[in-house]
Amino acid sequence: MQYDLYQFKTMAPNRSRPALPLPRIRAHPQRTLVPPTPTPPRAAGRQKDPEKDPEIDAVVRTATLDGLAEVGYAEFTIGQVAENAGVYRPATYRRRPSKQHLITDAVATLLVTTPTTDTGELRADLVAGVSTLVTAFETTLLGRVLPALVADLAGDPELRDTFLDEVFHTRRRSTETVLRRAAERGGIPELDDTTMRFTLDALAAPVYYRALFRHAPLDHTLVTAGVDLLVLTGRASQAG
Question: Which of 11, 122, 151, 191 is the most exposed place for a label (fewest CB within 10 A)?
Answer without folding.
Answer: 11
